[in-house]
Amino acid sequence: MLFAAGLGTRLKPLTNDKPKALIEVNGMTMLHIALRKLENAGISKTVVNVHHFSELVMEEIIRFKSDKMEVIVSDESDQLLDTGGGLLKARPLFDANSPVLLYNVDIVTTANLKDFIAFHHSYDGLVSLMIKKRPTSRHLLFNEHIELAGWENLKTGEKIITKDTSNYKGFGFQGIHIIEPRIFDLIIESGKFPIIELYLRLSREHTLMGYESRNDLWFDIGTPEKFETTRKTIEQMSEGEKRLLF
After folding, report:
1. In principle, which of 42, 84, 148, 212 could form an S-S bond with 203, CB 3.0–4.6 Å?
2. Which pLDDT tens digit goes with each residue over 99-135?
3. CATH code: domain of residue 128
């Protein structure tokens, strides 16, 4: 599932007349970059949720031609549901017995999704989260087994602990994760809610594993400044490095 319904408020004025999914990075929309990344990972069906400028996003989906991957829209035009609510609304569109890879549309990365998928299949966890040691004010906390164990905001001092350990390790979340279909039977939340809150609640009794992305490039196109940094960095990459973005 590709999360593409966000308002892109922090990206103004770039999102005055378009959603963040349609911002172009080196001549290609964020939506197109993400869809190609998922297609090249061997994924055969992707659900895209839409809300802000939904008609424009659906037009771009139509322009994305693929004979390898089906693209289905989950329409949130009436109400923006955040990541957790968006996932729950899209449940009928997924294959009932298959894991679902979740991907934020404003992410650009050289991380190998096939390796991440293989990691997820290597253990019996409920969720796998791609994480990275990087500067961020909000950390996901993991125990010595790299199991999700809490969350902290370094700016406010707020902290949530869900598993006890003698040595918490903080990582930045990469906006890429995989869920097992049995998670839907554990969701008691409804309406609009963030998926990280769901993960923290579930991590008290279930295994949610971190997958550390060490040497990969990763960009979050969250603000005009981050967009410009990403654009300049990609411009300077070799053609071989650029291919890793897809």
Report:
1. 148
2. 999 999 999 999 999 999 999 999 989 999 999 999 9
3. 3.90.550.10
Q: Which residues contact 7 (CB under 8 A, 6 or more apart)?
A: 15, 19, 51, 52, 80
What lies within 8 Å, CB to CB, of 244 at 6+ separation is 110, 112, 217
Task: Kindly provide the residue ranges of all beta strands, DSSP E only, lying in 20-142, ordered along the sequence.
Answer: 24-25, 28-29, 45-50, 70-75, 100-104, 107-109, 127-132, 138-142
User: Residue 147 pLDDT more than 90?
Assistant: yes
Tokens 């997958």, located at residue:
211
User: Could you give the number of structural domains in the chain?
Assistant: 1
State the Cα–Cα distance between residues 163 and 242, nearest whole angstrom.
39
**Structure confidence at residue 8 (pLDDT):** 83
Written as one string, the DSSP assignment of 122-148 is TS--SEEEEEE----SEEEEE-TT-BE
Q: Residue 110 corresponds to which tokens in the numbers above?
A: 């050289």
Spatial separation of the C-alpha atoms in residues 105 and 3, rounded to whole Å = 6
Cβ neighbours around 65 below 10 Å, total: 5
Give the Cα separation of 110 and 22 in Å (integer): 20
Of the ranges 7-16, 172-181, 188-197, which one carries the lowest mean pLDDT score?
Answer: 7-16
